[in-house]
């Protein structure tokens, strides 16, 4: 009986359990044994795993998070860890390893493939900033949560005649802020790709209020940068060296209130966007990606990952997905701007 391994790495994401379930269901149908490494690459370093059979994945489809746990451990930082991963891989005589993750996890998968390991990838991130796939699962759920939050902020903003600044996830790419802002009718959207002048933001709010509106909603991605102010993002780093953002919404809110005189409140959506049950879209996409990953292992297409191209799930080299992020194009932001103010 062939044995394959799977792991989930990076930030958790609604739809991960749909992928795990699909891999286990399709893998066992091939008469494979599926083992799941706990907490991302850390599980391979520690040889910490569980056997996954159909019973183990029963009922997990609608659940958020990942039953395997996750971490941001990157095994490629030193040779000793790479050797540990190889030794765990060989110890279990894996016929293939399916790494489910974002830029970091898949970057490691790509490197391990270069080192000769049989690895395939499944793209995951709520940020939707991975290249070589039209969408990642998790994004639709996060987008819907953020949109609903903007809807809810409208009624309280209007009742109190306030400016509401809503800080939305997205360190380097502003997909969630942009599309939730469009869907929720935000009056201004600030994203990392387009530095915005704070005076222009304040002018837009003043104009809007002059036209008789008594409230405004400002959607801001956590990685947004303001060109002409002393606003800086809090550049703390987590234990894995990733920038931990948070704070830009608060700072922008304070400046808006000071410059315009309009009472302002700030809401940071944070991990609410990542938690809880996945949308139907993410469950379906996760399921399709899981099926594809098993197909890739079966066909020996190592070094590839599942990818959504239009309505079709196909395969692309892992290398095409990593190295550079998929940012919001300038023309898309221009479209959003038509509805500012
Ligand atoms: O990459 C997904 C993401 O949710 C980002 O949008 C966010 O900046 C980051 O993860 C938060 O990471 P953590 O869960 O480590 O706080």
Describe what this molecule looks like in 3D.
With 341 residues, the chain is α/β, with parallel strands linked by helices. The protein has two domains: 179 residues, Rossmann fold (3-Layer(aba) Sandwich); 134 residues, Phosphofructokinase domain (Rossmann fold), CATH 3.40.50.460. It has eleven helices and 13 strands. The strands form four sheets. The protein has a five-stranded mixed beta sheet with strand order 3-2-1-4-5, sandwiched between helices. Strands 7-8-6-11 form a four-stranded parallel beta sheet, sandwiched between helices. It starts with a strand and ends with a helix. The structure holds 6-O-phosphono-beta-D-fructofuranose (F6P). 6-O-phosphono-beta-D-fructofuranose (F6P) binds next to loops.
Using the 3D structure, state the CATH architecture of the largest domain. 3-Layer(aba) Sandwich
Which percent bin holds the helix content? 25-40%
The top-level CATH class of the largest domain is: Alpha Beta
Morphology: elongated
Give the DSSP E fraction (strand runs of 2 or more residues). Answer: 15-25%
Provide the number of structural domains: 2
Q: Ranges with pLDDT <50 over ≥5 residues?
A: none
Treating each run of at least 4 consecutive H or I residues as one helix, how many helices?
11
Q: Biggest sheet: strands, sense, closure?
A: 5 strands, mixed
Kindly name the structural category: alpha/beta
Mean pLDDT: 94
One letter per element, helices H and strands E, the order comes to EHEHEHEHEHEHEHEEEHEHEEHH
Please count the beta strands (DSSP E, at least 2 residues each).
Answer: 13
Rg from Cα: 22 Å
Bound molecules: 6-O-phosphono-beta-D-fructofuranose
Give the CA-CA distance, first to last residue.
62 Å
Strands of the widest sheet, in order across it, are 3-2-1-4-5
Any idea of the CATH topology of the largest domain? Rossmann fold
């Amino acid at each position: 009986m062939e044995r394959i391994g799977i792991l989930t790495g990076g930030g958790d994401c609604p739809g991960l359990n749909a992928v795990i379930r699909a891999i286990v269901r399709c893998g066992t149908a091939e008469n494979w044994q599926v083992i799941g490494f706990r907490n991302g690459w850390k599980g391979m370093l520690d040889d910490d795993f569980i056997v996954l059979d159909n019973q183990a994945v029963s009922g997990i489809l609608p659940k958020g998070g990942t039953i395997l746990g996750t971490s941001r451990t990157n095994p490629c930082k030193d040779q000793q860890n790479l050797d540990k991963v190889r030794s765990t891989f060989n110890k279990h005589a894996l016929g293939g390893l399916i790494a489910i993750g974002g830029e970091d996890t898949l970057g490691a998968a790509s490197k391990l493939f270069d080192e000769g390991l049989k690895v395939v990838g499944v793209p995951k991130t709520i940020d939707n900033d991975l290249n070589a796939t039209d969408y990642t699962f998790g994004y639709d759920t996060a987008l819907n949560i953020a949109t609903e939050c903007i809807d809810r902020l409208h009624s309280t903003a209007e009742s109190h005649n306030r400016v509401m600044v809503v800080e939305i996830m997205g360190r380097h790419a502003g997909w969630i802020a942009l599309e939730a802002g469009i869907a929720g009718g935000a009056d201004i959207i600030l994203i990392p790709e387009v530095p915005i002048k704070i005076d222009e933001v304040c002018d837009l709010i003043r104009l809007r209020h002059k036209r008789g509106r008594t409230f405004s909603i400002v959607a801001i991605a956590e990685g947004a940068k303001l060109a002409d102010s002393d606003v800086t993002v809090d550049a703390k780093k987590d234990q894995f060296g990733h920038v931990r953002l948070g704070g830009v919404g608060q700072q922008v809110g304070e400046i808006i209130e000071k410059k315009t005189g309009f009472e302002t409140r700030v809401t940071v959506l944070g991990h609410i966007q990542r938690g809880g049950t996945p949308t139907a879209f993410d469950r379906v996409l996760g399921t399709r990606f899981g099926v594809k990953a098993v197909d890739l292992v079966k066909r020996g297409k190592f070094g590839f990952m599942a990818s959504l191209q239009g309505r079709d799930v196909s395969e692309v080299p892992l290398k095409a997905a990593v190295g550079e992020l998929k940012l919001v194009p300038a023309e898309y932001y221009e479209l959003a701007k038509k509805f500012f103010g």
